What does this fold into?
Amino acid sequence: MAGKETNNIMDKLVSLSKRRGFIFQSSEIYGGINSCYDYGPLGIEMKKNIKELWWKAMVYERDDIEGVDASILMHPRVWEASGHVEGFTDPLVDCKKCKNRFRSDLLEDTSKCPRCGGELTEPRNFNLMFKTFMGPVEEDAAVVYLRPETAQGIYVNFHNVREAARKKLPFGIAQIGKAFRNEITPGNFTFRTREFEQMEMQFFVHPSEDEKWFDYWMEERLKWYQRLGIRKEKLSFHEHGPDELAHYAKKAFDIQYEFPFGWQEIEGIHNRTDFDLNRHQEYSKKDLRYFDDVKKERFIPYIIETSIGCDRTLLTTLVDAYEEEAERVVLHLVPAVAPIKAAVFPLVKRDGMPEMGHKIADDLRGTYRIFYDEAGSVGRRYRRQDEAGTPFCITIDSDSLQHNDVTVRDRDTMNQVRIGTDQLKSYLAEKLSV
Ligand code: ATP
It folds into this structure.
């Protein structure tokens, strides 16, 4: 797709996000802060829905995965053991002329600046971890890091969780939480930011079974995107070549999505081997081996990791759902992801219609997120809900009061059906359960 058109779609999505209340720029009244975003009333609902869908698939529907919520600040030795202090770097180059900075591994041509054609410096390693100090004294001994991934909070709790939940291998630990990376070139809206939320699951297996479980998780994770309603043809796997593999990985596949700005990673599936637990055992001097009491064998498990960004997933679902039609812009979000499940509109603000509308809305609240709106033309109210991705609009007209029924309009087909108010709940339950 041409660059101009690409920007156009992303620009439209940024403006729709602000207009409808999905995503705002952080600290906007101060001019914003680069690459930080706030989720508005619709965005927060959508984020919650995405996390719930992930947690359901990874924890509730299985008996071999448990959850944790580890703290963001961890003992600084964690990041020495994990290799992040030494190796969590990206190659940074500066343009000598326009002073812009770039990640040289993401440049197509490393011989000149992509903005002004100026000369670039030699690449130097830039550590992506945010550093701060714990306590009142800013000294080396007080340095702590904002975690750049949630995974380490899982590894250090391996035995805590195993013992408390009485787990035997293979089993996994799941976590949703914030991560921070001082990215050199954030951008493409919320695609790459410096503060983001990850949904990670670490699956502990016997070393002889790593390949089997790697293949299993690749398949499972790809299937999950159907629940989000992402079009299959927009997803693909990309295997990391030897020069792309992270320091801990034996094998890695990305799940990629075709964004307007190209195919990009949305999730990583990694075989981290016994690297992390070995290193934590070495640095903490605690025995992190697992004891198989049937085979009488003691060993460090291998770890298969699935790591996905919640913000990036939300952006993916917005991009995938966005459509411009002749007379409207519509987000074809699946009901499970849509922030509002139904909107209730009295046709006019009189003749008992608002009262009936409120009654219907109140009755549905508690089961669904419902939006009530009585202002302006009904056509305009429909358009607003189309842009918000609301699957159904329920309208009360003068006949409704006589016959105790309403019209339900389907967002995607724009077809309207008349339904008795006593049937409304079961009608919505069936339609929204898909
Ligand atoms: P890249 O090489 O593009 O910087 P990565 O391979 O280091 O990314 P991972 O460490 O595998 O990324 O992170 C797992 C997931 O976390 C990614 O697939 C993405 O969804 C999310 N993620 C990583 N970095 C960011 C970021 N800066 N902003 C938003 N999401 C991110």
